[in-house]
Amino acid sequence: MVNSISKKIINSISTNENYNEDKLEQMEYALKVLLHELIKTILLITIFSVFGYFKEILIIDLTMCIIKPFIGGYHENTQIKCFVATLILEIGILSLSLQCNVSFISNCILISLSIFCIWNQAPIINSKMPISRPQLIRNNRIRGLSTSIFLGALSLALYNYSNYSSLITWTILFQAMLMFNKKES
User: Fold this and answer.
1) 25-41 average pLDDT score
2) Nearest to 124 by CA among 112, 140, 108
3) CB 76 within 8 A of CB 85
4) What DSSP string runs through 31-43?
5) Which residue range is the domain that position 90 belongs to?
6) d(Cα 85, Cα 87) in Å, to the nearest integer?
7) Same domain, 121 and 146
8) What band does 173 get if pLDDT is binned at 50, 70 and 90?
9) Fewest beta carbons within 10 Å, which of 1, 24, 27, 71?
10) What pLDDT was estimated at residue 129?
11) How many other CB atoms sit within 10 Å of the CB of residue 43?
């Protein structure tokens, strides 16, 4: 269904504009990814909202959306696997946030380790969507690091004022861990 919607939208664009076949293919791929991500996000927000975790899932998803595009990392090969993996990750982040009372020093250590991993690894290049221009790779690295540092600082600043601080910390940590990709077979 998403594929047919994407094709219809791209076909309507191509009749009005003068795009070559490569550009249309790129636009269709980007639109498919966006639609799949939108559907996945709406489903996840709905599921967590049913259990009373609307604000928490928004913070987790927002943190992931801000960091992940720039640092790369773990990807599944189907939309169903991606949905299930994301659901499991978000359950893990939420559970750790609710169950583990991390001290301020421990929070600083977790954020520092995460930022070190991101500094050391980012960006992870996805073989299915490789970026090869050195400038784009460098820009993604800088954006990934700077957003992680900003969100880490925000987590530390909110530590005494909000329980959402730990959601940000655990999400950054999970995103850093997921940079150490699964082995290709």
Assistant:
1) 79
2) 140
3) yes
4) HHHHHHHHHHHHH
5) 54-184
6) 5
7) yes
8) very high
9) 1
10) 57
11) 13
State the Cα–Cα distance between residues 56 and 53, nearest whole angstrom: 5
List the structure tokens of 79: 């939309």
Task: Give Cα separations from 87 to 50, 145, 178 (angstroms).
Answer: 14, 25, 14
Task: Render 99-110 in DSSP notation, one character per residue.
Answer: H----HHHHHHH
Cα 65 to Cα 20, 36, 71, 136, distances in angstroms = 30, 14, 11, 18
Stated length of the chain = 185
Task: State how many domains the chain has.
Answer: 2
CA distances from 183 to 85, 166, 178 (A): 16, 30, 12
Kindly report the average pLDDT of the chain as a whole number: 84
pTM of the predicted model as reported, rounded to 2 decimal places = 0.81
174 burial type by CB count under 10 A (0-12 exposed, 13-18 middle, 19+ buried): buried
Do 139 and 91 lie in one domain? The reply is yes
Could you say which of 16, 32, 51 is where a domain stops? 51
Q: What is the pLDDT of residues 66-79, one digit of tens each?
A: 998 888 877 777 88
